[in-house]
UniProtKB/TrEMBL annotation:
Coiled coil: none annotated. The keyword Disulfide bond does not apply. Signal peptide: none annotated. This is 5-bromo-4-chloroindolyl phosphate hydrolysis protein. The chain crosses the membrane at residues 25-42, 48-66, 87-106, 112-133. Residues 1-20 are annotated as: Disordered. It comes from Kangsaoukella pontilimi. The keyword Transmembrane applies. Keywords: Membrane, Transmembrane, Transmembrane helix. It comes from the Bacteria.
């Protein structure tokens, strides 16, 4: 008789605490403070005004790069198998902060490079200390080779894009309850993603779910959202919610089966190890 295996990805398991987003007040501060340059720019001669406006634009670019870098870092940290961000956005953000502060500190009358250089160096260093470095290397599940990790990363990336498209599409329907329902399904699907990342051998059995099923769910969501936004068809809504129920049940069952298989494999390995120890004359409990 199979033993029910419970874990953090199993249905009914306690929800993990939500991780606080890194893209909060500090990044908003980077966007807000440069507006001082806009207020002072029009009180200066044309050259000084142009320098301040360019500095404002550069600092806004730095804030945007920082925000995107933090989002990429959060996505990287949330996954067990992930490729490093292709562009080190936070590093470029530090460079842009330094350049923006250098322009802001430039005196158009003397054009002395000393103050701008000091502002650039201090600004870049403080930004790097405050926001940290970008992830610089890929990470994968222990015990699996880089080829397996790359296959899993590609499959999960594609699946995450399908979920993002579902969230974006259902937002057009203008029904918060449906958006929450899609979010609930997304969490169920992501539990499968994390299980596959923990054991890349599960990818073969889960590939239909990560690809075909999520692609179909995405297309159905887009069609439903467009229809419901126009007609508010209650029958279509009931059918769509039933589809989400079926998908969630199917994904949960598949994830639980993967966990049971992992438990069975672990039991076999433990039993084999015990037999080997017994042959060596080592007693086990």
């Amino acid at each position: 008789m199979a033993e029910r295996y419970g874990g953090k990805y199993s249905p009914g398991a306690a929800k993990a605490p939500r991780r606080r987003s890194k893209t909060g007040a500090r990044v908003n501060f980077l966007h807000i403070v440069p507006f001082v340059l806009v207020l002072t720019a029009f009180q200066q001669p044309p050259v000084g005004m142009a320098i301040d406006l360019v500095a404002f634009a550069v600092l806004q670019l730095a804030a945007w790069l920082t925000r995107e870098g933090l989002r990429a870092e959060e996505a990287y940290e949330a996954r067990n198998v992930a490729k490093r961000p292709a562009i080190p956005r936070k590093l470029f953000g530090s460079a842009m902060i330094g350049l923006g502060l250098a322009l802001a500190g430039l005196d158009p009358e003397t054009m002395s490079p000393l103050n701008p250089a000091i502002f650039a160096i201090l600004g870049a260093i403080l930004h790097a200390v405050s926001f940290g470095a970008d992830p610089m290397r890929d990470k994968g599940a222990p015990g699996s080779d880089s080829f397996q990790n790359e296959r899993v990363a590609r499959a999960v990336d594609e699946a995450e894009r399908h979920l993002a498209a579902m969230r974006e599409a259902i937002g057009r329907a203008g029904v918060p309850a449906l958006s929450r329902r899609v979010d609930a399904f997304a969490r169920t699907a992501q539990a499968m993603f994390r299980a596959v990342e923990d054991d890349p051998r599960d990818l073969t059995g889960a590939r239909r779910y990560l690809g075909v099923y999520l692609l179909g769910a995405r297309d159905a969501t887009i069609q439903f959202a467009d229809l419901y936004a126009k007609s508010r068809n209650d029958e279509a809504r009931r059918d769509y919610e039933a589809l989400l129920d079926d998908l969630e049940t199917s994904f949960s069952a598949r994830t639980e089966k993967m966990m049971l298989d992992d438990k069975s494999s672990l039991d076999v390995e433990i039993e084999v190890l015990r037999e080997r120890l017994a042959r060596e004359g080592v007693r086990t409990r």
